[in-house]
Amino acid sequence: MNKALIRWSAYAALAATLPLAAPAVAQSGSKLDALETRITRLEDMNQIERLQRTYGYFVDKSQWTQLSELFSDDATLEIGGKGLFLGKPRVLEYMQTAFGPDGARENMLANHMQFQSIPDISEDGTTGWIRSRAYVMGGGWGLPLYENAYRKENGVWKISRLTGPFTMYTSAQGWGVNALNNTWPDKFDPPPDLPPSVIYLTYPAYFIIPFHYPNPVTGKPFLPDTDEVGAYAGPPGTAIQREALRTGRMENGTQPIFQPPRN
Amino acid sequence: MNKALIRWSAYAALAATLPLAAPAVAQSGSKLDALETRITRLEDMNQIERLQRTYGYFVDKSQWTQLSELFSDDATLEIGGKGLFLGKPRVLEYMQTAFGPDGARENMLANHMQFQSIPDISEDGTTGWIRSRAYVMGGGWGLPLYENAYRKENGVWKISRLTGPFTMYTSAQGWGVNALNNTWPDKFDPPPDLPPSVIYLTYPAYFIIPFHYPNPVTGKPFLPDTDEVGAYAGPPGTAIQREALRTGRMENGTQPIFQPPRN
Amino acid sequence: MNKALIRWSAYAALAATLPLAAPAVAQSGSKLDALETRITRLEDMNQIERLQRTYGYFVDKSQWTQLSELFSDDATLEIGGKGLFLGKPRVLEYMQTAFGPDGARENMLANHMQFQSIPDISEDGTTGWIRSRAYVMGGGWGLPLYENAYRKENGVWKISRLTGPFTMYTSAQGWGVNALNNTWPDKFDPPPDLPPSVIYLTYPAYFIIPFHYPNPVTGKPFLPDTDEVGAYAGPPGTAIQREALRTGRMENGTQPIFQPPRN
């Protein structure tokens, strides 16, 4: 079992243990302490939402240095199917190499509008998670769905893992006309530190990114469904990719979460 | 006065009684208890927003069983002009009959992106309301505007009423090219338990769904305006529907909220 | 230094002094008082978000009188490049003159969908700020980015400054086909009380509206970058405007914030 797979297993286990409704508070200690903990959780959730929304405003205008400062030193970043980038300096390198130097410029639209966040904070108050979305307007349209993690270091929340597979990606003509597999590891520089942790395809195929939180009413963790989904194996339109559309399921029938094939 | 109308009257009365700014807290009891109540209200608002956003993520991927579990046993659901479905089992039947079995599939995009929520909690802490929106990307575009209700049962919030009339509904070509009346009771199976509680039309006509909350500054409840709006009477393009565009106002001139004509 | 410039200087200074992470609470007073202050800040943030989202719902349906009541008596409003309107009565006059009388009507779509808010409250609890966005669907598409201010008067929050320059504005055909400079002071009636406080252009040029809050991790205020951006000098397509695309920077190289040229 490799590192990336371990990460995702831990992630699935998380959903089963998160508190169901209101955050649990320690039974020990005074009522005042318990209330303070609950207030802190509410503030924490606001803080991690602020990080995620600010990330969006910085992408809009290519503020890469400011953006990289939102990440912890050992953060990981994985956008689309490009693979994993490890550590804050690599986050900055990825952005500046793939999208150009810091600073907005004419003829570029890169709006990353952020919304629909589901924030959670661990019982010890040092880890956070958000499921959320962006609606991207740029050369075309894109819809990343994030499942991110955050860490509180010396009282300050930082992004510790950003994971944003795309639900749909298309040109300015819209998804009624065409839809694209937006990224794969060798599509553009820089190359990732690790291959993608998740193999997925965008619309007209689909991928259900695991939920970090359980069903808010039943408390049951989300189990991905078992329909055919396909997997990334090479650039779209190639024979290997056509074949991959019929393969790639886990033994238990759920969607694949493992190392992609290396060509 | 039928049941559906009673529901909407109660709804309008609500807006007049909601607390104006910060939630009111009981004057009796200790300051500590009062603070706890305020914290609980903030947590409650987060919880009902979580339900609404999770509903969106489940619709995206046809997770109908999981979605139905977000509802109370006696919940009502009313989407577009399709009519009222009564009870959790009917919520599930509606989804699975109208949109297919549980599970995402290829060539289907059903993104229900949720945002702009205005949550409120009753003084006794057991009822909640949200006004919010979805931006739907699927076969085309759609813009439902929700006014939903939530109930806390044994410490767990559930959706007790989902009401989502569409502001605009169009094909993939966009609202600059065409706009459609998206649903009416007999458009697709299953038939509803009750006809629509609200008669409304989508763009290029309009409907102002009553606000559950008063103006946040003046505290005055919202009164719908009195311009011509038309009403649903039959499928778009029929003679009866063209006639209905000029009719359908309440005696007091406000937009109609009553049983639709049955053809 | 004129009034408008003074406003923006104060605004930049603000970002340098806002508390970094959780809102600071007075060290004096009991722990209970400190907790109450933190709860009040959370409620305050909810209230100013409610104002902003309600503003959006009112614009949707031309509820101009209700909308104007969300503003303080001395509020300022500045949308696009139209200039500054001073005071609540002028907010109402602007809306009713530019967009017609109160009330929705057929064939009009003016959805102002609000999201991605970053709320902040001053330490004394009487001033608030939000950075947020709207996604406008009407005759075409538009993307305002707000940096607004709010004031608590007798326990009730009101909008005290609304500032919404457009990132992008286009026809129903979309930004892949065309993009427009949406407003300038003399484009439509009524004329503003003051010229625009900010000179900016929309896509395919750009403008970075200053952030009211510092980087959430480093605490450093945002400094606009120094690339060429151009300035508003006259209607798009005129010789004076083409020339202006190469001018208009402050001495320190940042984007211009000053009185526009008067033709």
Summary tags:
homotrimer; 263 residues; alpha+beta; 5 helices; 7 strands; disordered C terminus
Structural overview:
3 copies of one chain form a homotrimer. Chain A starts with a helix and ends in a 19-residue tail after the last helix. The model of chain A is unreliable at 1-29 and 246-263 (pLDDT under 50). Chain A has helices spanning 3-17, 31-60, 64-68, 88-99, 239-244, and strands at residues 71-79, 85-86, 111-121, 127-137, 140-153, 156-164, 166-171. In chain A, a hairpin with a 2-residue loop joins strand 4 (127-137) and strand 5. In chain A, strands 1, 2, 3, 4, 5, 6 and 7 form a 7-stranded mixed beta sheet that branches. The first copy, chain A, is α+β, with helices and mostly antiparallel strands and 263 residues long. Chain A binds chain B through residues 20-23, 31-32, 35, 38-39, 42, 45, 115-118, 131, 133, 135, 143, 167-168, 174-177, 203-206, 208, 211, 215-218, 222, 225-229, and chain B through 32, 35-36, 39-40, 42-43, 46-47, 50-51, 53-54, 56-57, 60-61, 63, 66, 69-70, 102-109, 111, 113-115, 135, 137, 140, 155-158, 171-174.
Describe the structure concisely:
With about 260 residues, chain A is an alpha+beta fold. Chain A has 5 helices and 7 strands; from the N terminus they run αααββαβββββα.
